[in-house]
Design a protein that fits this description.
about 300 residues, alpha/beta, Arc Repressor Mutant, subunit A, D-Maltodextrin-Binding Protein, domain 2, 3 domains, 11 helices, about 45% helix, globular
Length: about 300
């Protein structure tokens, strides 16, 4: 058993499939499967339940998953601590992102970042993408973490460094009590249940969704709309309808069985989350270090 195997195992669980884990780790699906098999052989137990559509852990696998996350985080903390020994970084960093991104990625990372850089002060702002871009242009933000600006908002930012953060799927989910074990549909069947909408949180996705609705000649019965991902999830869990949201915001509820992922056979959308920061001397170092902690947290 080694750290690479543990990282692969944890990634398979958090991403929901070996294929998705391979995409994130830049490994082929067979390579991921082999690492899981090697880990099971080393431990002498089965870690995953075979023959089910969604990734499901055995009791031993669930125990390993919880402990492996702690081991990986400890290793990341050690790496960051070693790399930053002797540095004296200080300053003020203003960060803006969407609510759905911030709750999952930024909030958990801030504590780690501030422990390693106690002389840095931070401000985090959650808002709509258009408002964050406007604030960034007015020099009120130093970093914005948003879906790719060219793809989603059809614009580029001058004097800005752009870094890839991760790819994220949009998932259609429902409450498990809403459907009779339905797990796959055609897009035209999306109108069979009331629809819960994210509004214009991801403009590129909203445009693709509208185009597909027009192509199929259907009408969505939108009964609820919210750009707050927590509110959106609670509405879906209540059983009043189904809706799309970023996979990172849903995986925990899908794993726990509180939400049911619905595969849409003829429709998919992937969001490229990007890290944008001002390319100035006073911001560059702070932004680089925050990016390092953020990507370490993502594994």
């Amino acid at each position: 058993m080694n750290l690479n195997q543990l990282t692969t195992f944890v990634t398979v669980i958090t991403e929901g499939s070996m294929t998705a884990a391979g995409d994130k780790l830049l490994l082929t699906q067979p390579a991921v499967s082999q690492q899981i098999r090697n880990l099971e052989e080393d431990l002498g137990v089965h870690l995953l339940v075979r023959g089910v559509r969604q990734i499901k852990t055995t009791p031993q696998g669930e125990l390993l998953y919880e402990q492996a996350k702690k081991i990986i985080q400890l290793a990341q903390n050690i790496e960051i601590s070693i790399k930053t020994v002797g540095t004296d970084i200080k300053g003020y960093l203003r960060i803006g992102t969407l609510n759905s991104i911030g709750l999952q990625f930024i909030t958990p990372v801030l504590n780690r970042f501030l422990r390693h850089y106690p002389k840095v002060k931070t401000k985090v702002e959650y808002d709509k993408g258009e408002n964050l871009i406007r604030s960034y242009k007015k020099n009120n933000l130093d970093i914005i973490i948003l879906p790719d600006l060219h793809k989603e908002f059809n614009l580029e930012l001058e004097g800005t460094e752009k870094r890839f953060l991760l790819k994220e799927e949009m998932w259609l989910v429902s409450s498990n009590k809403s459907l009779d074990d339905q797990s796959e549909i055609e897009f035209r069947d999306i109108c069979q249940m009331p629809f819960i909408s994210m509004g214009n949180e991801y403009p590129g996705f909203a445009n693709e969704l509208r185009a597909m609705v027009e192509k199929e000649g259907i009408t969505l019965d939108t009964v609820f709309e919210s750009e707050n991902v927590g509110t959106l999830k609670r509405a879906i869990e209540s059983g009043i309808g189904w809706g799309f949201a970023p996979a990172h915001a849903l995986k925990k509820q899908v794993r726990a069985g509180r939400l049911n992922r619905i595969h849409v056979k003829d429709f998919s959308y992937v969001v490229d989350l990007q890290y944008y920061h001002r390319n100035t001397p006073e911001i560059r170092s702070l932004a680089n270090n925050f990016y390092q902690v953020l990507t370490a947290e993502r594994g």
